[in-house]
Fold each of these.
Amino acid sequence: MTTVAVQTKVVHKTKDEAVSNTNKKKVYEVNQLNLWYGKDQALKSINLDFHEKDVTAIIGPSGCGKSTFIKTLNRMVEMVPSVKTSGSIIYQGRDIFDPKFHVEELRTKVGMVFQKPNPFPKTIYENIVYGPRIHGIRNKKVLDEVVEKSLRGAALWEEVKDRLHENAYGLSGGQQQRLCIARCLAVEPQVILMDEPTSALDPKSTLKVEELMEELKQQYSIIIVTHNMQQAARISDKTAFFLNGEVIEYDNTDLIFSNPRDKRTEDYITGRFG
Ligand SMILES: Nc1ncnc2c1ncn2[C@@H]1O[C@H](COP(=O)(O)OP(=O)(O)OP(=O)(O)O)[C@@H](O)[C@H]1O
């Protein structure tokens, strides 16, 4: 008897086909990105473009490389000594792996918010002015303005304006996460990377952060890793589905969720695995 191997059809669209919304400017172009931790390859031939003022969700099962990918975009992944990469990541026309592109400059433009809120053990005010001070801003009036603007931008001002000089650890988890977003806004980034920013929050705080993202995308590009399919569907314009270190499908979010082209995407978003 002959065995016929039935293979799932692989739909690796080229990135220009992948996302039809081409009238927005590209912020990042990721070309043939590979990444290894020692001998283990965690990212395989990733080709993705990210656009200005879009929210892009990165979804996929545990261990598929989502965090590794997002941490590659601001070169944080290099903190792991065994990491090697190939390919290119073009940010605003410049390759972030080019030694002339200083990582500090990149991280000024590309902020990051983590899974667990991580305020500094300082006052709310000091948390916000930390970055601007490093960038040489000393004038108190200017710093006060940055604090108010950033906290307003993160929808936290009204809740904390009378306790700016209290320790940030006194805030609730959801408030701490919005403080971390405010801290990120204080250095006026262009892109905000978010690695499961609401997974440690209760539903009410999650909703606040999601509403905030809706506001923020008027001004910033947001790339968010999430395990929460409803969240990806609610908040993102585009979605990339990762599996085993590869991008299986990347498209406008409504298409990914209503009409996925690859069986594996469909199985994942309908909860058959992951
Ligand atoms: N510091 C590290 N050293 C070695 N291997 C690592 C390291 N960090 C991640 N990996 C490996 O790289 C692969 C991708 O991991 P990564 O954390 O990026 O996945 P993920 O999709 O974000 O997972 P999760 O959803 O569980 O957070 C996994 O096989 C993981 O074991």
Amino acid sequence: MKIAVVGTGYVGLVTGTCLAETGNTVTCVDINEEKVKKLQSGVIPIYEPGLDILFNRNTAQGRLKFTTSLAEGIEEAKIIFLALPTPPDEDGSADLKYILGVADDLGKLIKNYVVVVDKSTVPVGTAEMVRERIAKNATCEFDVVSNPEFLREGVAVEDFMKPDRIVIGTSSEKAKKIMEQLYLPFVRQGNPIIFMSERSAEMTKYAANAFLATKITFMNEIANLCEKVGANVDDIRRGIGADSRIGKRFLFAGVGYGGSCFPKDVQALAKTAEDNQYDFKILKSVMAVNTSQKTKLIEPLKNYFSGNLKDKQIAVWGLAFKPYTDDIREAPALDNIRILLELGAKVRAYDPEAMNNVKQLLGDKIEYAESPYGALLNSDALLIMTEWPVFRTPDFEVVASLLKNKAIFDGRNLYEPKEMQEMGFYYVSIGR
Ligand SMILES: NC(=O)c1ccc[n+]([C@@H]2O[C@H](COP(=O)([O-])OP(=O)(O)OC[C@H]3O[C@@H](n4cnc5c(N)ncnc54)[C@H](O)[C@@H]3O)[C@@H](O)[C@H]2O)c1
Ligand SMILES: O=c1ccn([C@@H]2O[C@H](COP(=O)(O)OP(=O)(O)O[C@H]3O[C@H](CO)[C@@H](O)[C@H](O)[C@H]3O)[C@@H](O)[C@H]2O)c(=O)[nH]1
């Protein structure tokens, strides 16, 4: 099938590549000329494990192409995916200007029946708005379908190729058949398609992200209480995770959730509730708890240095919002670094993939090390923000010899408190 993907960011690139892998001919469109040039010359602009193999295979076989021209990209396409940004507007709602702008253009360009698919995370009612905007200019039939994406960065290829489920919102039988055919290779591997209305599909995406953000936040609150009552959140996680009704995943306490999705989507769902005169109390608490959780270790760090961090050098391990990505959007590390700098401290950081992105943002406001141990040189204490595997089993003798103080503030619970104590470290983690 001939497919167009408009927006070649994280989701567009993974969607386009994976759909080419299942035998479709895909053209990805992006207005960012530099990005398209890179992609055309075989350079993938994001770090995503495993994507390169599929990308190289499908570009070499001519099934995956890139262009800046919307008209060229959608030519003869049977399906047009919209994988465009939906960043928070000033009031927290999802900004639909990219999606609706492209919908206006599509109306003028489509010549034959086509299915337009919202892959972006969009508020309830967006499919109807997209339909109206296309219809204003269109001279042929078309359908608009909601097909939210559930992939996680770092395991995006696996999530796309082996999804827990594919959600398709449509009221059109014709579009339903086309989408079913597109996803047949996935269905044959046992991945279910769940059909529903456009509105329900849009809501499903927000409900999934808000639920997971709530699950994490609940564990962060349990962790905070554990600290007060002398319990260990790791034990609680194992204890409740063994109950299949609760499940083992997304129960890790830490320095809050970040990334390009949970923060903005929880906020957008709260705004939808507000716009519909519904007081969504849990979401408000989730946002408030997460904000304070992100910089929770600053207080104990300050206390360790008797309330004064001026001229102290803090080593920071991990800048990405989670491991296996170079994405720093809403990363807890950035909030902590901002406060440390405000308090007069110096920061020396290391991250396996995200340092270039941080350099673009912070420049020489902080120092960048070439290795985890390099970050410890002349540092007064270590702050851990991301659970990259390289941080999990360091040589603690080397750590102790490089740090000026044997003090570690661990936002990801990487080490055993008892062992750290036995080795003579001052060790603060979350909920233990
Ligand atoms: N990143 C994720 O893990 C993830 C997962 C599931 C869903 N989503 C949702 O998918 C959507 C896209 O997210 P993303 O992370 O891929 O965004 P992104 O910001 O990485 O990429 C968006 C791309 O769209 C391009 N673009 C902007 N306007 C354009 C236009 N008029 N024509 C063509 N291209 C245009 C940009 O240049 C950019 O390359 C969002 O709604 C997001 O919430 C993201
Ligand atoms: O037990 C956990 C699990 C995750 N996190 C944090 O939660 C955030 C989000 O993690 P994750 O969900 O793995 O990353 P994303 O790539 O942002 O993926 C989420 O957001 C995407 C965009 O909507 C969805 O498609 C995915 O299904 C959804 O998991 C990160 O800061 C993690 O550190 C925790 O603190 N504890």
